[in-house]
């Protein structure tokens, strides 16, 4: 990481930062392109990352200027906190210390759960599915103790019951460090471990069933993965990267709707990276939101049954993902930018909910006398399925609108 800088720089460079989660639409792979756009119109002041998602922009520039990171999903603030609020303080626990504390909790509860499956043995698909069913029965069990949310909600879905026990245990241990500057590091490392041991396809919309030999052997790979190993590795990597001093800039972190966030932001530059397509982030990443809030949410029900994806009942529906609302959403976005007197850099692609031309004409109508430029680059989008079509070629665009 760069040494502490006291002075705000007008030319921003991409810094290196640890990656934390797999995220649809993350700009980490094209951060150079985003920075090129930002440097075209940035004239100093704070930068608002209005739809911060995996907080990649915070990681890339947080040492050089004040960043206001915002996203409607709460997990995004935790990720941004990891990049821009966390620092090393004396007494920071090692990964081994955290894991040892979690191990005590897991040992205590594993017995009472009555599940002891070794995924290292040879399995037939039938036997494997029998074990899956036994674990899914836990979803109907009532618990009297605290810190059982993942075991109760997700055993035998994206994770095995034992992986869920570890997620709950590490989450419980994390809470002891709630007021410490490295608290978000523990949660982010756990999000990383959850992502790399999940049997889903890079998100949490649907878990897979072992219906064929090939899906069975693929799911088995993830059932064998150790939450602890992934957690420990990422935690060590982040701790190594963290500064030993309190961050220089007074960065801001909010979990607001973009319109409310823009009401509070003045001057500077807004980087807007709204959703491009019809899938709601609140559906794809509900398990991360639940990990962070740990609020035992009511699950969405359809025809009297909890839906397979086990989504939170109360979840955000973004107007950028809804055909009848997307134009209005862009109008609101541009009006908010105009009223906040900020420059704008906005990402969108030629496969978005509305065409680049339509977005351009809304921008031209609202920004009237302001200069609007569009930068384009070729990019491969992850399709987030483990099928043949894993990447799709698209044109990534940056709309650049200078300050008045
Ligand atoms: C394309 S992603 C952003 C990716 C991010 N730039 C990155 O590099 O990870 C879009 C984000 O917009 C957020 N979002 C959707 N609707 C929103 C709204 N109404 N207000 C604020 N954030 C919203 C989603 O939660 C999602 O994280």
Explain what the structure shows.
The chain has 2 domains: 28-85 and 251-280 and 316-401, Vaccinia Virus protein VP39 (Rossmann fold, 3-Layer(aba) Sandwich), CATH 3.40.50.150; 95-241, no CATH class. A 7-stranded mixed β-sheet has the order 3-2-1-4-7-9-8. The protein has 15 helices and 9 strands. Helix 11 (258-264) runs parallel beside helix 14 and helix 14 (326-339) packs parallel to helix 15 (356-367). The radius of gyration is 22 Å and the shape is globular. It starts with 30 loop residues before the first helix and ends with a strand. It is α/β, with parallel strands linked by helices and 404 residues long. Helix 2 (56-61) links the parallel strand 1 and strand 2. Bound molecules: S-adenosylmethionine (SAM). S-adenosylmethionine binds at residues 23, 25-27, 51-54, 56, 71-73, 76, 257-258, 273-275, 281, 318, 320. Residues 23, 25-27, 51-54, 56, 71-73, 76, 257-258, 273-275, 281, 318, 320 line the site of S-adenosylmethionine.
């Amino acid at each position: 990481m760069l040494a502490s800088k006291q002075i705000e720089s007008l030319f921003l460079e991409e810094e290196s930062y640890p990656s934390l989660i797999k995220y649809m639409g993350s700009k980490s792979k094209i951060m150079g392109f985003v920075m090129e756009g930002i440097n075209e119109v940035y004239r100093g002041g704070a930068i608002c990352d209005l739809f911060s998602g995996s907080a990649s922009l915070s990681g890339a520039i947080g040492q050089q200027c004040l960043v206001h990171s915002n996203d409607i999903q709460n997990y995004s603030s935790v990720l941004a906190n990891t990049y821009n609020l966390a620092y090393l303080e004396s007494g920071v626990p090692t990964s081994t210390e955290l894991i040892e504390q979690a191990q005590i909790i897991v040992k205590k509860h594993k017995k009472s759960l009555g599940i002891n499956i070794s995924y290292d043995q040879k399995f037939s698909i039938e036997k494997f599915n029998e074990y899956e069913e036994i674990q899914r029965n836990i979803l109907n069990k009532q618990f009297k103790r605290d810190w059982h949310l993942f075991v109760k909600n997700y055993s035998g879905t994206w994770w095995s019951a034992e992986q869920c026990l570890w997620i709950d245990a590490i989450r419980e241990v994390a809470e002891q460090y709630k007021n410490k500057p490295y608290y978000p590091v523990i949660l982010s490392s756990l999000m990383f471990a959850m992502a790399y041991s999940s049997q889903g396809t890079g998100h949490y919309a649907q878990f897979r069933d072992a219906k064929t030999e090939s899906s069975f052997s693929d799911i088995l790979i993830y059932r064998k993965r150790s939450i602890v190993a992934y957690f420990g590795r990422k935690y060590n990597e982040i701790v190594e990267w963290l500064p030993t001093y309190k961050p220089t800039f007074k960065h801001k972190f909010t979990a607001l709707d973009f319109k409310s966030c823009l009401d509070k932001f003045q001057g500077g530059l807004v980087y807007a990276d709204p959703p491009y397509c019809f899938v709601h982030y609140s559906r794809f990443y509900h398990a991360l939101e639940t990990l962070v809030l740990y609020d035992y949410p009511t699950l969405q029900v359809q025809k009297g049954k909890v839906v397979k994806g086990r989504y939170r009942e109360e979840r955000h529906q973004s107007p950028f993902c809804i055909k009848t609302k997307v134009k209005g959403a862009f109008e609101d976005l541009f009006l908010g930018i105009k009223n906040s007197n900020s420059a704008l850099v906005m990402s969108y692609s030629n496969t978005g909910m509305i065409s680049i031309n339509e977005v351009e004409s809304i921008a031209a109508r609202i920004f009237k006398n302001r200069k609007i430029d569009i930068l384009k680059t070729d990019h491969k989008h992850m399709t987030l399925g483990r099928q043949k079509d894993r990447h799709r070629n698209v044109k990534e665009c940056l709309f650049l609108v200078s300050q008045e």
